[in-house]
Structure formats: C-alpha cells, structure tokens
C-alpha cells in the first residue's frame, strides 16, 4: 500500500501533559505564583507554548507585559525536561512500525516548536518512523491554518491519505486542508466526539490500520 499519513503529537501519539504541566508550574514558581492543576493545563494544550503561556498568565492575572519573558522561561524549563514524564499511548510504536512496513510514508505536524518535538521523539524512540516533522515554528503560521499540514504532505510527496489528531484544532485543520481526519478519542479534546468533524474516530492504535484500506480504495 502507498499513501501519506500525518500525525499530531501531543494528545495523539504521546501523553505529554505531565511534562507540560511540570514546566508551566516551574515557570509560575519563578514568578512567585501558585501552581495550576493538571486538568487546567490540559485545557490549555493545543495551540503551542506561547498560547499556553498566555492562558496561564490570564489564570493568574499576570500582566501582558510579561508574555515574552514567561514564554522564554517556559521554553527553557520544557526543553530541559521534555520527556521525563511523557509516554507514547499504548500501541503507538507497533502501529507506526506496521504502517512503515506496509509502505506508508509518515509525517508529524504539531504546534509544539520543532526543537522540543525532536527532543521528545528522540527520547521516546519515535524519530525513525517519520519522514518529515513540521513544528509550530516551521512556518509563519500554525494549525488550524492548513499550511503546516499541507507542507507536511507536500514533503512526503505521495497521495494525501489521512491526518490523525485528537483535538478541535486538528479537526479544523484537516477540514480546512480537505484531508480525511481520524480522531483519536483519548487525547486532549474538550468537545464531544459526535460534535467534531471527522472521517472516523478510534480509541486504540491497534485499530487504526483497519480503517486504511477503505481510504486507499477511495
């Protein structure tokens, strides 16, 4: 089989929220502020670190003038410990290995900056599965703008088969790029599954491949 499949990272391939939570609370501690709980931080994930920092500031009534300083602090804490607590979701490695073995070309498109994304992929031994990695700073725009996803598929250079993600941002990105979308239901979305546009939804990576022959046939 041939075709290109692009994946989101946070909440799709890996549960990265514990490391993001830890870095955010280290940032808040540096500012003399109280920590936020994990559920709150999960609600802020999906649009990249600068956006997350903005929401953290708002939650603690920290002035806008500190945005750049706090973003730099958050990035420093996160890149120092990007994968201490993060883990791939069950079945991810075997799913990616099987897809590669079947001839699919695989890419990654995330709103996380590319450098920490590569650190995480290396630490979790996932790097070798991907022919291209597009980060939140790879282009002037981020998801849900379709350009990063389109750039990932362009780099893969074959039929645009499927985008796999977990969130409202991913669903909108796929819709705007006119790419079939698979929604992983165990990630960080806030909206009910039934309300998100998708080609199909799945809750375990050992079931993903079963959906592909129908997409290839189309």
From TrEMBL:
This is Phosphoglycolate phosphatase. Specifically catalyzes the dephosphorylation of 2-phosphoglycolate. Is involved in the dissimilation of the intracellular 2-phosphoglycolate formed during the DNA repair of 3'-phosphoglycolate ends, a major class of DNA lesions induced by oxidative stress. It is an enzyme of class 3 (hydrolase). It comes from Lutimaribacter pacificus. The active site is at 8 (nucleophile). The lineage of its organism: Bacteria, Pseudomonadati, Pseudomonadota, Alphaproteobacteria, Rhodobacterales. Its cofactor is Mg(2+). It catalyses: 2-phosphoglycolate + H2O = glycolate + phosphate. One of its GO terms (molecular function) is phosphoglycolate phosphatase activity. Mg(2+) binds at residues 8, 10, 166. It comes from the Bacteria. It holds the Pfam family HAD_2. Its EC number is 3.1.3.18. Keywords: Carbohydrate metabolism, Hydrolase, Magnesium, Metal-binding.
